[in-house]
Specification:
The chain is α+β, with helices and mostly antiparallel strands. The protein is built from five helices and eight strands. 20% of the residues lie in helices and 24% in strands. The protein is globular and about 50 Å long. The two termini are 31 Å apart.
Length: 208
């Protein structure tokens, strides 16, 4: 399953393949639980105020591809706050795992630190922070292969331009949440695989 996030930038979900572990697929992928030791090393699930994995879950696993020549994205958060009236602790984290050295010309991920608070009511809170001179400068960490960038799902971020002419940038994205959370913002609730299976079942029924 694939979603175009912006021209030249695509996100390919692996979650259903990992859940199915279907040997009919030519693509071999690890089980979701195989990711737990890696995530433990960067503080998940403790960063979600959860002490163990039965209180948290992997909400999505995907690969983001920024193709050569892709322009910078617009600033965005990956989802809303739970309570628009007051700020609550983090309930969803993004873990970006670099699959190779993400040099500045490949377009690293840029973040605006502290804006996970402001996106609750973006316009007024950003204006207030600007007036109070508390807005922090954007940062774009240069990641090496195997590095992890961990950030609150609600923070303003964007992929910078890939100014190369022949190199794609690949990032493995693991989204982890508290156990009650369902992400209905970034991928459709219904899998394309499920739709294909339904069509096959309908065809088989018609033949009977």
């Amino acid at each position: 399953e694939i979603v175009m996030r912006s021209p030249g930038r695509y996100e390919i979900s692996l979650l259903n393949l990992m859940k199915q572990q279907n040997q009919q697929h030519s693509l071999r992928v690890p089980a979701i639980t195989d990711l737990y030791p890696i995530l433990d090393q960067v503080g998940v699930p403790h960063l979600l105020s959860r002490s163990q994995w039965n209180q948290a879950k992997v909400t999505n696993v995907s690969i983001v591809v920024s193709t050569a020549g892709a322009a910078s994205q617009g600033w965005h958060a990956d989802g809303p706050h739970v309570n628009p009236q007051k700020h609550l602790p983090c309930h969803v984290l993004n873990v970006f795992l670099a699959l190779d050295h993400v040099t500045p010309d490949l377009g690293p991920t840029q973040l605006r630190p502290g804006t996970h608070v402001h996106t609750r009511n973006l316009g007024p809170l950003m204006l207030a922070a600007h007036c109070q001179k508390t807005l922090r400068k954007p940062v774009a960490p240069e990641l090496y292969g195997g590095d992890a960038l961990v950030f609150d799902y609600r923070i303003l971020h964007r992929g910078l331009a890939n100014i190369t002419t022949h190199r794609n940038r690949y990032i493995l994205v693991v989204t982890v949440s508290q156990d009650w959370f369902e992400d209905v913002w970034n991928f459709p609730r219904r899998s394309l695989f499920a739709a294909a299976d339904d069509e096959k079942d309908a065809d088989d029924t018609e033949k009977l």
